[in-house]
Structure formats: structure tokens, C-alpha cells
Specification:
30 strands, Rossmann fold, GMP Synthetase, Chain A, domain 3, 20 helices, binds 5'-O-[(S)-butoxy(hydroxy)phosphoryl]adenosine, alpha/beta, 22% strand, 32% helix, 5-stranded parallel sheet, 7-stranded mixed sheet
């Protein structure tokens, strides 16, 4: 592989929060040699505590505790502590709705909104330890709701607005939520995405839910169930602006975020308070190199972990201006993002390879018709970025001036784990480069032995770090099995990777049955179990198929029950079926009908062979365990006919 190396321009390095490789190495070494001192000092200096912690780190494998004995509040750290500084009237959230409406909310005003909504939650009977589900469009009330929950110690779970009623119901039930916070709908591609009807459907079987709080965003006609459903604006009329943040244990559960695993049942990744906050706070400074005067934009949806950590908690903790956009990049035209960067003089942009590739396809004329000279740093997350997309991002968007931080991390890791500190670590397109301080990665083989440099293997992390997920909600056993037992005593990421002779990490993708579609994790099992619930389907096997824009696309192999089926019609119906069962983003791109699926003699579907068929259209791998080779030959031939 040709390896070009890009170092930051001198003026970037001079002003960087961490300048030069030596300084990066010194920080990393310090954290590796004396982790408790390193994190203890940062926690004390960078966060605001009600009561200091007594221990930095407690480790009862695989369960970690950080900063035990401390009392702290995330909402206080994101808001109150800025109000005694020049930041009090600085814009905290700079929001633009898709129709073009704007809101600029200062730290002081955000504090007021959060206090008022926390008082609303209290008036509905919510207390520390209760749970809330948040199912909202990208409007300011979404971070307000999250921060209000955090203020009271109400553990929340944000469910991405693209999830179906059924997926929402499963999450409400698993969490045992008392309240659902939602909106009538939101705007995307100039159409309303309705949310409240999905909540109504989900609540048909959610006995724990006492109230639904509804923001009026689109003004469309919705049903309000008397006694249960309440308008946000009605509740907001009679509450005080003052609501003290509750001093919470460092390990108090902050939020649960459901993500796909290798079974049909989503995993509730639990993050707690102090360690999660510290990880996000530090990586805002180390990776995004945040300066007081920056305007920072992460284009993710808050429904995914990227939005939690890098739209809400990280940016507000360091006191930056965080931009939030409701809608789609192509509305009203493909220059929407570039227009916003020009208009708000945005300095740091954090987005995904899938978005970059979609924008490349529209041509350079869109970014070129705008002044992007305010940009000084670019970021990428969600999947490996292909070097061609990296180069385009660097040249056409960054005009060759802006370093690119390719950030590798996961819902479970809470914050960025491997990424360049842009003023210190030169970049190689396609590599997430070097680990953050406190992160000790390695690459191992099936026996758990390190493979050494330039060899592929499983990416693992040797020691816990402050923002690591503490457990799976209600399922500590699955947590231990999934992450700590594949290779005993180390954190198993589920990714394959290679480390080169400069120590740079190249993440290659998942090693399990998890697909990555547009940077969103989706399990093959989840889609399969949706498909087999359709009355016509006998069996289904799902694999990720390489896709130019979304990285992977869902490809489903389906065998049907006896009957006279119209394949074209049924294909359409099944794609829609999956969208209804899980969400539109899970809709298979392709359904292939077949008489049989390749199986081992013990009856296990060999997805590996199907993956080969959709990737290279032939099968070259080991087929000795295959029960019936004919099935594979037919499937491969079927593709050639298409
Ligand atoms: C998986 C985690 C954490 C943010 C969004 C996704 C892949 C993520 C990169 C990157 C290569 C990446 C991995 C990882 N991934 N960022 N910069 N380079 N791969 O969160 O849904 O928890 O998915 O996304 O495969 O395991 P997630």
C-alpha cells in the first residue's frame, strides 16, 4: 500500500493543544506507567466535583469502577460551571432546523431550559434512579431532555428517530422507563418524519410508562391520550428556573444506549457518570484541539453514541459552541452543509466516511461555491475511511490546510480510543493512527498471542479506561462473555486490525456477524429474525455486501415456504417489512430468493460463504464442512445471471 504521510501545517502545530510527537509520546507513556496518578490528576483538574473521590480505579474483572466515592453531576459540568466565566453568554448550542429556522442558545439560557425541564420531570414524579426514554428529532429539546435527566440522575436512553415502533417498544420494556419524551415529528428531506404515532403504537404494551411528554415541532395532527400525554410547552409554563444539580456517585448510571450485537436482541450499553465525562472532555481537547473561539460541528444524529459524546456531553463540558442540524445534507440542495460552514464560520467539522462519499458523488461544484476558509480541522468516524475519500476531504474541503482526525471507537468505549492528536501525530490516509493516553491496544491471534507488526489479527485493549461501558443493562453475564472472555482478561473489540512498523493502527472491519451500514451497526441476526417472522419466509441469511456509498449494504438470502410467490412483489414487501420491524435504515438493498442456504453438516448457516458470493461472486475459502456444495454453486451462478 502506498503510504502518504500528512503532517499539520506549522501554524496549526504552534497553536495546538498538544504539539509534536514527543509531547504526545510523553503523555501516552505517563498514562501507561502511572495510570491512576494520570487519571486522578486530570479528573481533579478538569472536572468540577461536589465531593472528591477516594479511589481512582477499582477493578473486579471484568467490572471497573472509576473515581469511587466522588460526588459529581454531568449537567453541572456541562452548564453551571461555565456560568461564572465569560462563557455565560457564549452560544452553547447553535441550531438550524431543516426548513431554515435557527436558534442560538447561550450557556445561561441552556442552563435555564434544562433547569425548567428538570423541574417538569420532578413534577411528573421522576426521581434519581428512574428511567426515561427519549425519542426525538434533532431539535434543541433533545439535548435539553438529556441534560435534565442527567441533572436529576434519571437514567435515559435515546432511541434514534429512525427506529420503528417495535424497536422502540423493546427498548422501553427492557429499560422499564417511567416516561417517554418525544415530539410530534421532525423534518427530513422536506417531509415530516412522524414520531408520536410510533410512540402510541409502542405503548400498547409498556405498563411502566406513566407519561409521554410531547414537543410541538411540526404542528401536525396527532392523538394525545388524556392523562398520559402532555405537551412540553404546557408543562413548561409553571415551573421555576432553578433546579440544583443532584450530587451523584461517580458510578451513577448516566445513560443506556442500545446497539446491535451478534444475536437478535440489542445490547443496552451502560455508561456511568464521572469516567464517561472525563473521557469525552479530554478527547475534545486532545483530538479536536478545541480553542475558546471555536465553533464546532459534529454532523451525527444524537440517537447514536457519536452524538451523545461529541454533540452534547464532550463539547458542552469543554464550553465550546456545538452546532446541531436537524435535517438532511441534500435539502434544499447538496450544498446545505457548505452553506452552513460558511454562514456560521465553522472551524471544526466531524462527520462520517459515508457522508463524505455521498457528497463526493455530487461533484466539487457544491463545496467550491462556498467560502470554507474558516475550517481548520476535519474529523471522520464510523468505519474505515478509504484513502480516496480521505484525499478528497483533505483537498476539496480542507484545501490542504486542515489535518484529518480519523477516530476509531465504539458505543462501548464511550469516547475516542485511537486517533491522531492533530498537532502531534502525522496522518496516513486510512489509518486511525495512534492510541489515546491510557489506551493500550494490541493485535492478537485466535490463541490470544500478539501477532506483532504488519500482521492482521483481533484488535484488543489491554486495560480498562475511564469511559469504558460498565455493563450491559440487566445482563452482566453477556457483558463478561462478549467483551472479556474471548481473550481472557482483555477487552475484545470485535474488530480486525493491523499495526504497521510506525505503530499506526489500521482497522479493517468487524470480525463478527455485525454489519456496518452508513457507519451504523446492524446485526445480521436482527434482520434475519425480522425476515423469518414474515409468513412467506422459511429461512433467511443476511450478510453485508460492499457498497460504494454506505460502506456495506444489507443483502438477504431467503428461502420461501411452499407456495406460488411473485418474487418481485414479495421482494418489495420483505424490504418494507424489515423497515417496519427495525427501521428504514435496516431495509435490505437486495433480497435473493433461493432453494437452499449453504449449511454445515450440523445445520449452521455458513454466512462466510454468502459473504464471499456477494463480495467476489465466487467461493474460494474452505468448504470442507459444507453439507451440499450444489447450493453454493447455484447461488454463485444465480448472481451471474443477474
Ligand atoms: C464500530 C463501532 C463510535 C462511533 C460510531 C460507530 C467501526 C468506528 C471507525 C474508524 C474504522 C471504525 C468499528 C467499530 N468504526 N469508527 N475510525 N475506523 N472503523 O459506533 O455503532 O458502536 O460501531 O464501528 O468496526 O467496532 P458503533
Amino acid at each position: 500500500m502506498s503510504e502518504k504521510i500528512y503532517a499539520a501545517p506549522a501554524e496549526f502545530v504552534t497553536r495546538a493543544n498538544v504539539s509534536g510527537m514527543e509531547n504526545y509520546r510523553a503523555l501516552w507513556q505517563q498514562a501507561a506507567d502511572r495510570p491512576e496518578e494520570f487519571w486522578g490528576e486530570l479528573a481533579e483538574k478538569e472536572l468540577d466535583w461536589f465531593e472528591k473521590f477516594s479511589h481512582v480505579f477499582e477493578w473486579d474483572p471484568p467490572f471497573a469502577k472509576w473515581f469511587a466515592g466522588g460526588k459529581i453531576n454531568v449537567s453541572h459540568n456541562c452548564l453551571d460551571r461555565h456560568l461564572t466565566t465569560a462563557r455565560k453568554n457564549k452560544v452553547a448550542i447553535l441550531w438550524e432546523g431543516e426548513p431554515g429556522d435557527q436558534r442560538m442558545i447561550s450557556y445561561q439560557e441552556l442552563h435555564r431550559l434544562v433547569c425548567r425541564f428538570a423541574n417538569v420531570l420532578k413534577s411528573l414524579g421522576l426521581q434519581t434512579g428512574d428511567r426515561a426514554i427519549v425519542y426525538m428529532p434533532m431539535i434543541p429539546e433533545l439535548p435539553v431532555a438529556m441534560l435534565a435527566c442527567a441533572r436529576l440522575g434519571v437514567t435515559f436512553s435515546v432511541v434514534f428517530g429512525g427506529f420503528s415502533a417495535e424497536a422502540l417498544q423493546a427498548r422501553i420494556q427492557d429499560l422499564g422507563a417511567k416516561v417517554v419524551i418525544t415530539a410530534d415529528g421532525g423534518w427530513r428531506r422536506a417531509k415530516e418524519v412522524r414520531l408520536k404515532p410510533a410512540v402510541d403504537e409502542a405503548l400498547s404494551d409498556c405498563p411502566t410508562v406513566q407519561h409521554v411528554v410531547v414537543v410541538k415541532r411540526t404542528g401536525s395532527e396527532i392523538a394525545m391520550q388524556p392523562g398520559r400525554d402532555l405537551w412540553w410547552h404546557d408543562l413548561d409554563t409553571n415551573v421555576s428556573d432553578d433546579c440544583p444539580a443532584v450530587p451523584l456517585d461517580s458510578e451513577h448510571p448516566l445513560f443506556v444506549l442500545y446497539t446491535s450485537g451478534t444475536t437478535g436482541k440489542p445490547k443496552g450499553i451502560l455508561h456511568t457518570t464521572a469516567g464517561y465525562l472525563l473521557g469525552n472532555h479530554m478527547t475534545m481537547k486532545w483530538v479536536f484541539d478545541i480553542k475558546e473561539e471555536d465553533t464546532y460541528w459534529c454532523s451525527a444524529d444524537i440517537g447514536w453514541v457519536t452524538g451523545h459524546s461529541y454533540i452534547v456531553f464532550g463539547p458542552l463540558s469543554v464550553g465550546t459552541t456545538t452546532v446541531m442540524y436537524e435535517g438532511s445534507p441534500d435539502t434544499p440542495a447538496y450544498d446545505r452543509w457548505w452553506r452552513m460552514i460558511e454562514k456560521y464560520r465553522i472551524n471544526v467539522l466531524y462527520t462520517s466516511p459515508t457522508a463524505i462519499r455521498a457528497l463526493i458523488r455530487q461533484g466539487d461544484k457544491w463545496p467550491e461555491s462556498h467560502d470554507l476558509s474558516s475550517l481548520r480541522l476535519l474529523g471522520s468516524v464510523g468505519e474505515p475511511i478509504n484513502p480516496a475519500a480521505w484525499e478528497w476531504y483533505h483537498r476539496v474541503i480542507g484545501k490542504g490546510r486542515c489535518p484529518i482526525v480519523d477516530t476509531w471507537w465504539q458505543t462501548e468505549t464511550g469516547c475516542i480510543m485511537i486517533a491522531p492528536m492533530p498537532g502531534a501525530v502525522p496522518q496516513k490516509p486510512g489509518s486511525a493512527t495512534l492510541p489515546m493516553p491510557g489506551v493500550i491496544p494490541d493485535i492478537i491471534d485466535l490463541e490470544g498471542q500478539p501477532v506483532g507488526d504488519d500482521r492482521e489479527g483481533f484488535l484488543i485493549i489491554r486495560r480498562p479506561w475511564p469511559s469504558i461501558s460498565r455493563t450491559l443493562w440487566g445482563d452482566p453475564k453477556r457483558y463478561a462473555e462478549q467483551y472479556w472472555q474471548r481473550a481472557p482478561g482483555v477487552y475484545f473489540t470485535g474488530d480486525a486490525a493491523r499495526r504497521d512498523s510506525d505503530g499506526y493502527y489500521w482497522v479493517l472491519g468487524r470480525v463478527d456477524d455485525v454489519m456496518n451500514v452508513s457507519g451504523h451497526r446492524l446485526s445480521t441476526m436482527e434482520v434475519e429474525s425480522a425476515l423469518v417472522r414474515h409468513p412467506a419466509v422459511a429461512e433467511a441469511a443476511v450478510v453485508g455486501k460492499p457498497h460504494e456509498i454506505t460502506g456495506q449494504a444489507v443483502c438477504a438470502f431467503v428461502t420461501l415456504k411452499q407456495g406460488d410467490w411473485n418474487h418481485e412483489e414479495l421482494g418489495r414487501e420483505l424490504r418494507q417489512w424489515v423497515a417496519e420491524k427495525i427501521g428504514a435504515f435496516a431495509r435490505p438493498e437486495e433480497i435473493r430468493f433461493s432453494d437452499g442456504l449453504p449449511k454445515t453438516r450440523s445445520g449452521k448457516i455458513m454466512r462466510r460463504l454468502l459473504r464471499e458470493i456477494v463480495t467476489s461472486h465466487t467461493v474460494t475459502g474452505d468448504v470442507t464442512t459444507l453439507e451440499d456444495m450444489n447450493v453454493v454453486t447455484k447461488l454463485a451462478a444465480q448472481h451471474d445471471e443477474d
